[in-house]
């Protein structure tokens, strides 16, 4: 706002000057308020984005379990395979495992995928032997909620399903001559529930574990794991521990009740 000074009385010129000063002050205050509001908005949006951020963990691990299992693939044929830790390399043909977890605050999405193939030569009686084995696929998708959650610890209640796909085989020999062979496969689903927890004693050192159990397609299944880990940086950690697992399933002549237990070693990648 401008005033033509030479055409206005002195009092009017003073009023114009005061009005112009007030407008300038309002513009300055308005600009400051807008900047402050924009700052608060950006902070609020950032906080909201952080609150809605999913943290992902991928954890491939190696499991060297002892094996104990009845194997039945046909009526009247039931063989037992058992191998302690000293013989796992003779019995375990292949094993691969991995966990994927996504966390958003107290909400947890969990997936564990395992594959174990094992076989062994069993003496039925003098002169009569059998090659018995199984392939075991296991996938466990689950959801969880942290009933306790802090920067150092969390206790998650879990519920989900465990999908099994098991193939068994049993070939019986008299000397070097094969007498008969049975092969079978079954797929079933168990409901599963339990708890998973983690606690950090220091920024680097932590312990974790889970307790899961269920039934449905099988008579029962349970799964225990405990491990200690070391965090090298926010993105990478290593862990070592012990895992034990058991399932009991039978359907007609098909029998699969393997139990696995042994040390685990793995890495954790977060992003």
CATH architecture of the largest domain: Beta Barrel
CATH topology of the largest domain: Lipocalin
Give me the strand/helix succession.
HEEEHEEEEEEEEEE
Mean pLDDT: 83
**Content-based structural category:** alpha+beta
- Give the count of helical stretches: 2
* Main sheet specs: 13 strands, antiparallel
Strand percent estimate? over 45%
Low-pLDDT parts are: 1-5, 44-50
Strand tally is: 13
Output the CATH homologous superfamily of the largest domain.
OMPT-like
Overall radius of gyration: 33 Å
What's the helical proportion of residues? 10-25%
Provide a concise account of the structure shown.
The protein has two helices and 13 strands.
Please provide a written account of the structure.
The chain is an alpha+beta fold. The protein starts with 9 loop residues before the first helix and ends with a strand. Strands 1, 2, 3, 4, 5, 6, 7, 8, 9, 10, 11, 12 and 13 form a 13-stranded antiparallel β-sheet that branches. It has helices spanning 10-51, 88-91, and strands at residues 55-63, 66-74, 77-83, 92-104, 107-125, 128-149, 153-174, 177-200, 205-216, 220-233, 236-251, 254-256, 259-270. The chain folds into two domains: 5-48; 54-270, Lipocalin. The chain is built from two helices and 13 strands, in the order αβββαββββββββββ.
Summary tags:
single chain; 271 residues; alpha+beta; Lipocalin; 2 domains; 13-stranded antiparallel β-sheet; 2 helices; elongated
Secondary structure layout plus pairing:
Blueprint: H1 10-51, E1 55-63, E2 66-74, E3 77-83, H2 88-91, E4 92-104, E5 107-125, E6 128-149, E7 153-174, E8 177-200, E9 205-216, E10 220-233, E11 236-251, E12 254-256, E13 259-270
Antiparallel strand pairs: 1-4, 1-13, 2-3, 2-12, 2-13, 4-5, 5-6, 6-7, 7-8, 8-9, 9-10, 10-11, 11-12, 11-13
